[in-house]
Amino acid sequence: MNRELEYMFVQCARVWIPDAEDVWKSAELIKDYKNGDASLQLTLEDGTNIEHKLDPKTKNLPHLRNPDILVGENDLTALSYLHEPAVLHNLKVRFIDSKLIYTYCGIVLVAINPYETLPIYGTDIINAYSGQNMGDMDPHIFAVAEEAYKQMARDERNQSIIVSGESGAGKTVSAKYAMRYFATVSGSASEANVEEKVLASNPIMEAIGNAKTTRNDNSSRFGKYIEIGFDNRYRIIGANMRTYLLEKSRVVFQADEERNYHIFYQLCASAKLPEFKNLRLSTANDFLYTRQGRSPVIDGVDDSKELCTTRHAFTLLGINESYQMGLFQVLAAILHLGNVEIKEKDSDSSLIAPNNRHLTAFCELVGVTYKDMSQWLCHRKLKTATETYIKPLSRLQATNARDALSKHIYAKLFSWIVEHVNKALVTSIKQHSFIGVLDIYGFETFEINSFEQFCINYANEKLQQQFNMHVFKLEQEEYMKEQIPWTLIDFYDNQPCINLIEAKMGILDLLDEECKMPKGSDDSWAQKLYNTHLKTCCLFEKPRMSNRAFIIQHFADKVEYQCDGFLEKNKDTVNEEQINVLKASKFHLLMELFQDEEKATSPTGQAPGTGGRTRLSIKPDKSRETSSKEHKKTVGCQFRNSLQMLMETLNATTPHYVRCIKPNDFKLAFSFDPKRAVQQLRACGVLETIRISAAGFPSRWTYQEFFSRYRVLMKQKDVLPDKKLTCKHVLERLVEDQDKYQFGKTKIFFRAGQVAYLEKLRADKLRAACIRIQKTIRCWLARKKYLRKRSAAITIQRFTRGYQARCLAKFMRLTQAATVIQKYQRMYVEKKRYRKKQAAALAMQTILRAYMARQKYQALLREHKAVIIQKRIRGWLARCWYKRCLEAIVYLQCCIRRMRAKRELKKLKIEARSVEHFKKLNKGMENKIMQLQRKIDEQNKDNRLISEKLVGLESSYAVEGERMRSELSQLRGVEEDARNKAIQVSSLLEELEKLRKELSVTQQEKKTLEEWAQTYRSEMEKMVSELKDQNGSLKKEKDDLNRLIQEQSQQMTEKMTRAIAEETHQLETDLNEERSRYQNLLSEHLRLEEKYDDLKEEMARSSNIKPGHRRTDSTHSSNESEYTYNSEYTEMEEGSRAGDDVTRGMDTSLTLKLQKRVTELEQEKQSLRDELENKEDQFQRARARDDAEFRKARGAELEYESLKRQELESENKKLRHDLAEMRRSLLGNTAAGAGAPGSPAYKVLLDQLNASCEELEVRKEEVLILRSQLVSQKEAMHHKDEKETMTEPSVFAEDVNKLKDADELKQAYVGLKDTNRSPRFTRPPLEVGDLLSRLRSAAPDLHRLNEDGELWLVNQGLKETVRLLEHQLQTQRRTYENETESLRGELQNVKEENNRQQQLLAQNLQLPPEARIEASLQHEITRLTNENLEFMANDPAASQEARVIILRRMVDLMEQLEKQDRTIRKLKKQLKVYSKRIGEMGAGQTEGQTSPGQMVEEPIHPVNIPRREKDFQGMLEYKREDEMKLVKNLILELKPRGVAVNLIPGLPAYILFMCLRHADYLNDDQKVRTLLTSTINSIKKILKKRGDDFETVSFWLANTCRFLHCLKQYSGDEAFMKHNTQRQNEHCLSNFDLAEYRQVISDLAIQIYQQLIKCMENILQPMIVSGMLEHETIQGVSGVKPTGLRKRTSSIADEGTYTLDSILRQLNAFHSIMCQHGTDPELIKQVVKQLFYIIGAVTLNNLLLRKDMCSWSKGMQIRYNVSQLEEWLRDKGLMTCGAKETLEPLIQAAQLLQVKKKTDEDAEAICSMCQALTTAQIVKVLNLYTPVNEFEERVSVAFIRTIQTRLRDRCESPQLLMDTKMIYPVTFPFSPSCVALETIQIPGSLNLAFLTRV
What we know:
Blueprint: H1 2-8, E1 14-19, E2 23-29, E3 39-44, E4 49-53, E5 63-64, H2 84-97, E6 102-105, E7 108-112, H3 123-129, H4 141-155, E8 159-164, H5 171-186, H6 194-209, E9 210-211, E10 219-220, E11 223-230, E12 236-244, H7 262-269, H8 288-291, H9 303-316, H10 321-338, E13 342-346, E14 349-352, H11 357-366, H12 370-377, E15 379-383, E16 388-392, H13 395-425, E17 433-439, H14 451-482, H15 495-502, H16 507-516, H17 522-533, E18 540-541, E19 549-553, E20 558-562, H18 566-571, H19 576-583, H20 588-593, H21 625-631, H22 635-651, E21 654-661, H23 674-684, H24 686-695, E22 699-702, H25 703-709, H26 723-734, E23 741-743, E24 747-750, H27 754-912, H28 915-922, H29 925-1103, H30 1115-1122, H31 1127-1138, H32 1140-1144, H33 1148-1229, H34 1240-1275, H35 1282-1297, H36 1302-1317, H37 1319-1322, H38 1328-1336, H39 1339-1347, H40 1350-1405, H41 1409-1434, H42 1436-1481, H43 1492-1496, E25 1516-1517, H44 1523-1532, H45 1536-1542, H46 1547-1561, H47 1565-1585, H48 1590-1609, H49 1622-1626, H50 1635-1670, H51 1700-1716, H52 1721-1744, H53 1752-1772, H54 1779-1782, H55 1784-1794, ...
Parallel strand pairs: 7-21, 8-17, 8-21
Antiparallel strand pairs: 1-2, 1-5, 2-3, 3-4, 6-7, 9-10, 11-12, 11-17, 13-14, 15-16, 18-19, 19-20, 22-24, 23-24, 25-26
Helix pairs in contact: 4-5, 5-6, 6-7, 6-9, 6-13, 7-9, 10-11, 10-13, 14-15, 14-22, 14-24, 16-17, 25-26, 29-39, 29-40, 29-50, 30-47, 33-34, 33-40, 34-41, 35-40, 35-42, 36-42, 39-50, 41-42, 44-47, 46-47, 46-48, 47-50, 48-50, 50-51, 50-52, 52-55, 53-55, 56-58, 57-58
């Protein structure tokens, strides 16, 4: 022992020393303690050095402090040193630093009142504690309640929760939360809302039994014990309440800063209500009983609202409105009675003034006469042996009598309310067990203590004795269980104190005896006490300075009681005549209050003291002798009896203790006063519990935990295979004193302080190991540093030497280079001098030679010019001579020829006069005429050809002539210029002389100008350079501006992108919320439906009707097959009609609950509607804004289209004019022959031209039609939806544009026909108004809206509209920019076309007539085709509309062909059916007996081919009577495991759908409906029967989804037929649109999915905490800390303990089963995401509620476990399903446990890292962070406040825990099947032989 002390009391050891203010102070030893030292040298925490002297007698050393890792423990018994300072410090650290108000102390829960509302009592916290072991979670009142509930169910034993503490400690709140826990986790056995009634009793009892005191604003002024009854299924069935010692004196008197009972102030605050008008109430300050404390208002409390809560609670408990008004009437009468003023008549009598308004009000309210009441308030009856007389009362006596009456009335009213509350909570169901909650006053001591404090402390003495015995019993049982030797533990036994109070001749006996004395008084009773107990009992003392008081040594402290008033309070006397007056009242409630006045007050069910003794001055009545004796029981006797019954009840139950502590007297939030805390800890027995535990073996370890923790203290040779033997050897070596520990069967028990000793050994060992590791590492680092420096020095030397060598080489190279440069420089200088001389010589030679050449040239030039002049003159002379000679010769020739002609004329005249000559001339004339005629014909033919050529050349000549004329005009202009210049020559010659004269002057000026020009040039160059610089700077600024503009544009683009992304995310979030809300409603609907079915079954059983007779006629199933959402109400009505007699007997509370639920749903619906209207307004504003932009863009587009249309019209007119000109030229130039009018070729050409003209006219009409349509479209633009006007027509027109030939056009027609026939297009497109109306409608419309994603489509449509508008604006801008170029190109094309037409016409004229006509036709076709193409290119919108019109026309024209095709297909089907029937009957064996239909249709002719039987249509035929057999074999009796393993996935769904197809093929509406209804009901039935079987639920989820996908895939809707084969498209449903049933089946799939999640959650729930938190996946990382009495689950993997591998194996099993069942991969991803959310949420919630899990090592374990889960996701290919993101809060919490938590930088890093955690969660983790080793540090309070400051701007939910019940909204993406229906084979194991394949 001395060795251990010397080892523990060393330098730096910390101890506790007493302190006057803080009770205990921490100090640290400056030097080691030596045995025999008289004092200790200490240093306080503030640095002060002191000397602590030891007691010379006892030599007791101060208390040692626990190691830091044990500070803040959940259980005080886990502390190694168990003493008062350790307990106080642990509570303070938890309360102040960690904000934890609950702490275990063995079996006691210590609750410190925070005086602040904490978010730790929500439903999520209740769910987190439900089902958990008490030691596995952090201390909480819910943990105690759960332990009591669990022990009641496990041990079949009643339980009690004893809540005690002084006023203001929070007893009432703790008891209230315990009852709330039972009401939440257990529910009720019936629909009577018992749990709500139990909770509703709290506001009633608080109103009539709680009041404001100086210590508490809601102090309970009575004790109560509530028994909550449970049935054999442990559901609440009822409750019963017992009350103790109501403080009646508060009704008539309150101290300063206190109030009367709350109900009085609630009535006064509501006095203005109409129903309270007759109570004549006013404010609380107007009544004596409510104004004495001078504090009528409590901060933060609205008394009028509290009254509403109280009245609602009365109603819920069955106290109707009339009784409530009666209660309020009695309470108001008490207030008025207190205001009755009694005046002094003389010294011995008093009186009440007539017509006292308060007494009048009192009499009217209670229904008594004013005269009688005023008489007996001032008088009393006295009885002697012979007569009875009336004695007046003095003013003081009358006032006391008035107050006694008020107290008596209130006590009666209190008892009546308690009785009726118990009646409301009672039940007819047999009670199996109960849990009692005792809310009773704690130990009290004031400056003046009276009878009430005496009774309270007496009750606490009894409770403390029971508590001590229970603790001692538990310790004894633990030691016996572990089979360790033990001795009796010495603990304080307060039985002597109890005997002093209640034994024979005790204080109560003497008090009752004195009360029976005629002249008994408080003084005489005090003397009896002194005489009886002063010398005989050491616990009884007499004060030195008083003879009217006594002192009792209680277990908590000494208390001095004043004897004044003891007798009066014990008697509780009321004037009998006053009671008789009240009994004579006509007020029914008052009569009920006093009808049992003469009966004894039962101590078991009523408030003690409420029926106190009334001394009546009447004659004795023998018939009432027994009752009068019972009536004379004193208050003390009644209280003793009721307390005895309470103790018997508690001893018969398993008690659980809650001790409430008041941290300060000023109600400050999280303020801790050590003095007050120590007083209460001593008074409530917590320190006694610590003392009892410390006297034995408080620290207990399992062998495995001890081995894991202290493995570092063992050597390798000490480790044996047997852990128990290893621990024994180690302890024998480490601890010499064998009494310090004991070895049990499963645990090692240590004395107090031994764990700290072992922890110090462990810390020293680890410290030595750390020092050795540090030494080695520092050596390694130093050597590494030395080697690095050495290597660096060598490197520096190497580089230095290299540098020097490079410098030398560089110097040598520079020297050589200088020599070379000098050589070349000198050479260059000499060469330059030589070149200068050479250039000068050459220049001189050049100038000289040039001068000589110029002289020679000028001589030659003068000679040449003289020769030219001579040549011109000589030529002119020769020409003059030649002209004169020529004129003379011509004149001579003319004269000679004239003479000869005259002679010949004369001869001819003579011959003409001769007749023979005339005949000779006429001879041969006819031949000449014929020859001339032939020549004329030939000339005509040539003329025609030439004329045609001329016509062809005319245009070219015209062009050429135009060109020549333009050139001629140019030449004329040049000629005119030449003339003008010739005229100017003379003037120029004259001016030339002047210029020569001026030349000399100009040359002189030239020099001046050249000088000025040189100057100007230099200035200009300078200016140009400056301008260039400015230009460069401007360009730079321009580039900067462009870059800035681009950056801003990019920023705007990014901003718009982010805004669109945020809006998209918001829309997705809203959609998910709507989907989640809808699916929650579905689950609620399913729950109500199941409850309805259970009620129907109960009704059927209670009415003794056979099950077969509960069904209605067959129309019930057909009506039910509609399966609309009002079917629930229809069934309820049918059920109500079938069982009216039964429902009449049902409890009306069920109706109230259903009405409440309906009200909640209506409110939720209204809130959704309001939210929807807000969304609608936002959508309308956005739509109006987009409409304005669209109209602007569309208007510009229409103007552009009108311009293009006008151009097209002018072009058409021009073409028509050209055609008319061509026709006229053909008619005018056509002569006889093939081209003559009327000839066939001409007619053909003319018809073609007419047809072309007609086509042009048609085009013109179409253009006019399009113009009108565009105008109407522009006017109707305000009333159309953006999506229809902008997206669908454009897409449709683009599709029409792509059609190239007739085949494509026909295919497009067929597709359009099918599309119009599909369900998607059978109804009009969804308008925005329809969408909003559907959103406002009931839940089915919402889901139908969300099924096809129409909300998403609307959003996408808006986005597409915006993008289309932007694209159109850009296109319009580009069109306007390119318009000029396009017009120029068109002009050039027209010119080229004109030239080409001329060439073609010239070629055609050379062709024969037939070829010419054919070429003309081909040319015309080509021209029209080009015209159409240009028309489409110039006006695409008009051409698209034209094509749409053409396509619609073709649709109308080909409608008849489609009808014929359908008729043919129908006939084919009928023919196939007939041929099959004929084949079955054997009628088709010969080929000659074929039907006429087979002769017409060749494809179905070979009916009798043997292989034809295998060509199935994918349908199954069954008889109507086999429907139930089909459902039974395929659904109800099907085993999923066999189907999943042996058959194709989704086989039942395929079979059902094939049966449905056959019913659709037969067009049997009734068969379709009954089959679908039976399928849905059977699936629901099998899920209700086997809903907890995962395989069954998974199997039917997969098949329901497959059935839903089949309904979509074969619905005929084009959106679902994209991935179908041609054969699958032939299998589509043809007669029924099952869209409504798709919605119903989708809802069923949602319900199955939710049930699957619940089933998987139930399987995983037990594994999560153990596998993710408790189990050490990485062994040895986290150390095991010492634990207290409440052991936690070990982290060592024992047999049967769940580990992470268990979770992974279960996830593998889930995944494999779902894959075997053929579940859609997308659905599997959603299931996995939900499972991972549950894992993360449950793990995080437990982490937030378990202080022992918040450590650095546990953070590493969690991160490793999460990585294993991510690896599992990666292996399964599920990383993209979003499951990893659901674990983000858990990951961030684990990171938070591991990061540094000291500086501001760490705080900033934490805030940026923990985005997925709320502020409350971050602060909670930091508060709970607990070091496992001494090397870790706690998180400082300042750092936590820094985190809170940085996170205060976050907008988030204050909820601490994650919602583990939250289910993500599920979607079922369409997944088409590739399985061909005709290939499916039905196995015989399904027993479906009655099905026939069709």
